[in-house]
Amino acid sequence: MLLAFMAISFLTVSCKHNDDPAPTSPPSVISLSPSITSLSPNVGVEGTEVVILGENFGDNTSEIEVTFGAKVAEITKKSSTELKVKAPSGLNDVAANVIVSVKGNRSNTKTFTYNNTAGPVIASITNTCFYGSTVVINGDNFSPNIGDNLVKFGTIEATVTAATKTSLTLTTPGLGDATTADVTVTKFNIVSNAKSIAVDVDQNKIATYNWATHTVKPGLTYKTGEFSLFGVTQRRVYVLDVTLNTSNTLGIGFTTTDVNTVTMCNNYNAVAGINAGYFPYNGSSNKDPYIRINAATVQNGHTDVSQLYTNSALLIHNNVATVKKFTESGKNLNLVAAAIPITQAENIIVCGPMLITSGTIETLDMSVGHNSSQTARTGLGVTADGKRIFMVVVDTGGGFTGVTTLQLAKILQALGSVNAMNFDGGGSSTMFVNNQGDKGRVNFPTGGTWQRPVRSVIYVK
Q1: The whole model's pTM is what?
Q2: What CATH number is given to the structural domain containing 130?
Q3: Is 2 contained in some domain?
Q4: What are the φ and ψ backbone dihedral angles of 452, each rounded to 5 degrees?
């Protein structure tokens, strides 16, 4: 019995040593992401049958989804390497991203372009252009997707900045010495009709001119040019290009004692500035402007003053500049300016005429001597956001001829102004730049060095 018991124990132990290991789970199946190699065709309309070639599509329709943008496509044929689908409806003139999803795994992206309309058509275009100017094309069948519209001036491509089905906004490219250009729009390889646009030679010259430039401080550039402009006549132009920020503050200076521009700018600790509003001089008519400085009215201005001298104002609010046109009728526009709430402008000065409104040069009455005379001029323009300012002075005398108000408007527009106004001109036109020129006087008022006393300035410090 003892031997039998030992034998049974040995067999039991041996069986335990020879047991198979516990069974393991079957190896997991790796799910490969689908991949698209090509779409054919990649341009079409809704309902177009599109062949999608690739891999890892599987063969279970319930696990496959094909999307064009946010639209789900109908699958008409399937295999692990090829799908046939119908381009879904609801998409027009867009480039849609096509993605294949299999059990939630997404493929790479390919683009299918919807071309549901006829080719682009140009109905009208901005009359004139110059380098960097904004041109608007109106018509039909443009793409709302900016990148689908190729606009050319002749063979030179322009930059499209905004697009709708009926309108394109673009920036004029460099056109060299061209005086006209044929503009076309190409969408999905379909070319529109051509429209001719004139190139304003003088504005193009200003926009591309190699100015003599001096950086007064960051964000404040002083530049000058002497060149033939508006024909063969020699002009001398001075520009202050100012970016308003915490380091560059725009202000209005005023005095009742009549001092020259350089002195007044120095009194305000300015680094640069120009003369500003009208004032009685040598028996001239009363046309004092309304002036507000730091929320306080410092001059009410005369009433019964022609709109020619009062239909615009420079407003400064939180160091943002606005050139505002008064559309009210009558001769009491100084009162209209005075009614502007302080919450909208702590600083105001009225003058005129308005030169540019919302990118378009005003229709100026050139039968009036104030507008048509080629004299020294002072003007100021702003960009649409009011954070960049262009102050301009044009000399007369000393072999140089001044400009009309229309020509001043063209200069300011070519520099980048969207809104602009005229300030007092003639012998008053003076520009100050600290540590430049003759103790800060950089131009030659009426061809000389004597400065006329004035009552107001626009300055930067």
Answers
A1: 0.78
A2: 2.60.40.10
A3: no
A4: -75, 135
